[in-house]
């Protein structure tokens, strides 16, 4: 099942003009605040009528302005998860979940309710009311309520934006399970590069109402030409396999045959992981350095150098582990003689990789 979107809309001084495909998995609309992410989601949901547009979900037309088709929200068969849970405060968790089941085209069997409760870890919360839940727990209930309505797609508009870092870390694994275990597409809005790196199957990068990049997460996030949230959020994503846990609190991963040492990562050996490495945390060296405290040294070849507007430059480095990005000054790039094809080493401090960058 996939979503096809083409929209054009103007309001105030803002003009939206986008077209993209969202396949199965989590498609993240990624960009700064004001880039048009929420406008797109509202148009897909039927909460906004665009001037021009067509939205089709697995061939079923939800909107076609040229043909005069605009299904109302309740007929689009979509689940919507907002920034806040929007739960009914007078109902228990069990009753809030049951409210979602009322909107399913046919009554959800008890086994489906049990599956959703297990997947989202809601068992201990079923008799509580929302006032006794944390922010992360409320969002898990909101996801469960949306799933139990048996939607054809889930829309999530910055569902972690109102949570602190601890609550975000709590709920991200549940979105990963949603991506991996539920066979419907999810359209997810975020301006957090770390969230995108962990969750996205597909990324649609937006800037000023336009699509500036789209495709698999590893390709888009590793493209130095795509910087929708600014250079400080630029980074690359590597696919790795958890090899072992060491007594000193470090976990060893393997990426393209190269070892990576990170602060302890949850999971057993063999687990597949994504690791986001921010460009500002990468140091470059022409020769393999020695006598450093940094534990991760990855050999590679310079692929491209993109000068910035100021004194900086963004270097793309091909390594056996995948493409890495490094933010350096143009002076450093010149002093090192960096150019496409030049051999180089990327140095990454173990402690620079936060738990939220691994998943």
Automatic annotation (TrEMBL):
Q: Domain Mop: where?
A: 291-357
A Pfam family that the UniProt record links to this protein = TOBE
Q: Which GO terms describe its cellular component?
A: membrane
Q: Which GO terms describe its molecular function?
A: ABC-type transporter activity; ATP binding; ATP hydrolysis activity; molybdate ion transmembrane transporter activity
Question: SMART domains from the xrefs?
Answer: AAA (SM00382)
| Protein's UniProt keywords contain RNA-binding | no
Annotated keywords: ATP-binding, Cell inner membrane, Cell membrane, Membrane, Molybdenum, Nucleotide-binding, Translocase, Transport
Q: Which residue ranges does the record assign to the ABC transporter domain?
A: 1-233
Signal peptide as annotated in the record: none
Q: Per its UniProt record, what Gene3D superfamilies does this chain match?
A: 2.40.50.100, P-loop containing nucleotide triphosphate hydrolases
Q: Write down the superkingdom of origin.
A: Bacteria
Q: Which NCBIfam families match?
A: modC_ABC
Q: What is this protein called?
A: Molybdate ABC transporter, ATP-binding protein
Q: Which organism is it from?
A: Oceanicola granulosus (strain ATCC BAA-861 / DSM 15982 / KCTC 12143 / HTCC2516)
């Amino acid at each position: 099942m996939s979503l096809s979107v083409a929209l054009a809309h103007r309001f105030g001084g803002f003009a939206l003009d986008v077209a993209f495909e969202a396949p199965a998995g989590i498609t993240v609309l990624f960009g700064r605040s004001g880039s048009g992410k929420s406008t797109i989601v509202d148009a897909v949901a039927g909460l906004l009528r665009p001037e021009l547009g067509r939205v089709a979900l697995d061939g079923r037309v939800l909107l076609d302005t040229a043909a005069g088709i605009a299904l109302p929200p309740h007929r689009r068969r979509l689940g919507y998860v907002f920034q806040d849970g929007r739960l009914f405060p007078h109902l228990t968790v069990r009753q809030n979940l049951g409210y979602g089941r009322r909107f399913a085209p046919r009554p959800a069997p008890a086994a489906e309710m049990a599956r959703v409760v297990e997947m989202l870890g809601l068992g201990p919360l079923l008799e509580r009311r929302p006032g006794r839940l944390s922010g992360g727990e409320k969002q898990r209930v909101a996801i469960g309520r949306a799933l139990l309505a048996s939607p054809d797609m889930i829309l999530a508009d910055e569902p972690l934006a109102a949570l602190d870092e601890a609550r975000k870390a709590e709920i991200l694994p549940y979105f990963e399970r949603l991506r991996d275990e539920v066979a419907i597409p999810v359209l997810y809005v975020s301006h957090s590069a770390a969230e995108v790196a962990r969750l996205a199957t597909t990324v649609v990068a937006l800037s000023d109402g336009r699509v500036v990049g789209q495709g698999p997460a590893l390709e888009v996030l590793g493209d130095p030409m795509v910087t929708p949230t600014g250079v400080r959020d630029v980074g690359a994503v590597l696919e790795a396999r958890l090899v072992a846990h060491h007594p000193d609190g470090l976990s060893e991963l393997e990426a393209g045959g190269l070892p990576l040492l990170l602060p302890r990562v949850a999971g057993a050996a063999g687990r597949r992981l994504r690791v986001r490495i921010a460009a500002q945390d990468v140091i470059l060296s022409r020769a393999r350095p020695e006598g450093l405290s940094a534990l991760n040294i990855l050999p590679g070849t310079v692929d491209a150098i993109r000068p910035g507007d100021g004194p900086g430059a963004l270097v793309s480095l091909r390594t056996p582990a995948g493409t890495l990005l490094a933010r350096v000054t143009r002076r450093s790039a010149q002093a090192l003689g960096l150019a496409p094809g030049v051999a180089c080493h990327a140095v990454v401090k173990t402690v620079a990789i936060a738990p939220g960058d691994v998943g």
